[in-house]
Amino acid sequence: MNRLLPVCALAFLLAPLTLQAHGPSRQMVVKEMQISAPAAKVWEIIADYCSISTWNAEVPECQADPGNKPDTIRTLKLKNGQQIKEKLVKHEPENRKMQFMLLEPNEAALPINTLGTTLSVRDGDGGNAVVEWKAAFYRSFPGPTPPPELSDEAAVAAVTKIVDAGLAGIKSLAEK
Amino acid sequence: MKPAALACALALLFAGRVTAAPFAWITNQADDTVTVIDTATAKAESTIKVGHRPAGVVASHDGKRIYVSNPESRDISIIDGETRAVIKTVPVGEGPLGIAISPDDSQVFISDWYSHRVAVLDTATAEINDHIPAGNSPAGLAVTPDGKRLVIANRDDNSIMVINLADHAPLATIAVGTAPFGVTVDAGGRRAFVANVQSSDVSVIDLDTYKVTATLPVGSFPYAIAHVPDSDRLFVTNQHDNSVSVLDLASGQTLRTVSVGDYPEGIMLHPDGRHVYVVSWFDGEVYLIDTVTLEITGRIKSGNGSRGFGDFIAPR
Predict the structure, then answer these.
(1) Which residues in B lie closer than 8 A to residue A101 (C-beta atoms)?
(2) Chain B: residue nearest A98 by CA?
(3) Which of A24, A116, A118 sits opposite B55 (nearest CB)?
(4) How far is residue B36's CA from residue B54's CA, in Å, rounded to a whole number?
C-alpha cells in the first residue's frame, strides 16, 4: 500500500503535463502593411514557404523541402537560437495567400501553442499593395493563472515581434 | 393617457420587443462585450459590457434572460433581454465556458474547464445551487428537448457523458474523436452530434443505445454544430479552414463546404428554420447561410473576437 504512494504522487505531478488543455481564450494578432509596390511583386518575395529567413529578421534560418506543397514542414531558427516547426496548410498563388500552423510548441522559443497564421497580399490604392498577417494562437501555459512571462500578454508580445519584423522586412525588400 | 393605459402600452411595447423577431446575442471575447443583432433587420443594434473574455452564451427560450460565460473573470453575466442591462454577475469556479439551458428555462448549466464539473444555476434565484461532476475539461453542453438529460463534451478525455438530470448520475460515458468541443442534440432528442477538434470529424451518438453510429470527416479543427431537422443536415464550423461543412446525415456525405470568415466558431439554426448563423472569430462577423440554397445571404459586423458558443438566438 505504502509503495503505491510515490507512484500516485508521480502520476499526479505528471497529469497536468500530459493534458492537451490550454486556456479558453484564443489570442489574435492582425496587422496590415501598406507597400509602395505592385501586389504581384510583393507576393513574389514571400511566395516561397521558406523565404521567411530572407525577409524576417526575427527568423534568421529556415529549412524545408522545396515546392510549397501543403503539409510541407519548415524548421525555423529564431533569433533567440530556439527552433520551431511549422506546417504549410494552404498555398494559393492565385489568391496570393498562404496558411501555416505551428506543429510542435517550444516554450523556450515562444510562449505559445496552436499558432495558425494566414499571410496574404492584396491590391491597395494606386497600384500599391497591402500585406496582411493574421495570427491566432493560445498561450502555452495551460492553467488559469500563468506567471507574467507566460501570460496572454507575453504570448501576444512574442508573436507581435515576429509579425512586425516580417512586415517591415517585406516592405523594405519590395520598395527597394 | 391614464396611468393604467400607459402601463399597459409600456408592457405591450416591451413584450413586443422580446417577442418580436428573434435577437442574436454574440459574445465578443476580445472586447468583453455582447453584440445584440435584430435578426429581422439583420443589423447590430447595441453592445453590452460583460465580464472578461466572454465565450459561451445561452438565451432563455422566451428571450427574457441571456447568460454569458466569462472564463477569465470566472463568472457569468446575466442580461435582461428587455432592458439589455447586466442584472447580475455570478462567480462560477475556475473557468466557466460551455453553457446550456433547460427547456423550461428553470436551470442553466455551465461547464467549468478547470474544475472538471458543471455548475447548475437556478434561474429563479440566479444562484448556483448544485454541481455535476464531469470528465477532464468539459466544454460544450446540450440538454435533451425533454429536459431529462444533459450531454457534456469532455475535451481532454475524448468522451461525452450523458447525465440523468433527475439525480445527476451519469447514464453513460462514450468514447468519441479527439478533443470533442461543441455538442448538439437533435430536436427529437434521439441523437447527439459532437465536433472533435483534433481529429477533424463529427461523432454521431445514438441517445437510446449510447453508441457512436457514425464518424463523419469534416474540415480542419471543427468547433460547433447546428442541426437542421427539415433536411436532417448538420452545419459544422471548421476553424482552420474558414468554412462550414454541410453534412447529409442520411448518406453521411458532405454536400458542400461553404466559405465563411476566418475562424468560424459558434453556429446556430435560426428559429425560422431557414438560416444558420455562423460567428467568425477572427473577422468579428456573423454570416448567414440559407439552409436550402446553401448560399451566404448576409453578413453582420459584431465585435472583436466573436465566439457565440451556445444557443445565442431567442426567442425560439
Answers:
(1) 240
(2) B241
(3) A24
(4) 14
Output DSSP code: residue A78: -
CB contact under 8 A, B240 and A116: yes
A contacts of B179 (beta carbons < 8 Å): 20
The DSSP-derived string for B38-76 is ETTTTEEEEEEE-SSS--BEEE-TTSSEEEEEETTTTEE
| Cross-chain Cβ contact B72/A136 below 8 Å | no
DSSP-derived 3-state class of residue B307:
coil
CB-CB neighbours of A147 under 10 Å? 9
Q: What is this structure's pTM?
A: 0.86
DSSP letters for B180-239: EEEEEE-TTSSEEEEEETTTTEEEEEETTTTEEEEEEE-SSSEEEEEEETTTTEEEEEEG
- Give the span between the Cα atoms of B139 and B158, in whole angstroms: 11
Question: Tell me: the pLDDT tens digits for B273-305?
Answer: 999 999 999 999 999 999 999 999 999 999 999
The span from the first CA to the last CA of chain B, in angstroms, equals 34
Cα separation, A23 vs A43, in Å, equals 35
B309 touches chain A (CB under 8 A): no
- Give tens-digit pLDDT for B18-40: 456 899 999 999 999 999 999 99
Report yes or no: B257 at the A interface, CB cutoff 8 Å: no
ipTM of the complex: 0.74
What are the φ/ψ torsions at residue B212 (nearest 5 degrees)? -75, 120
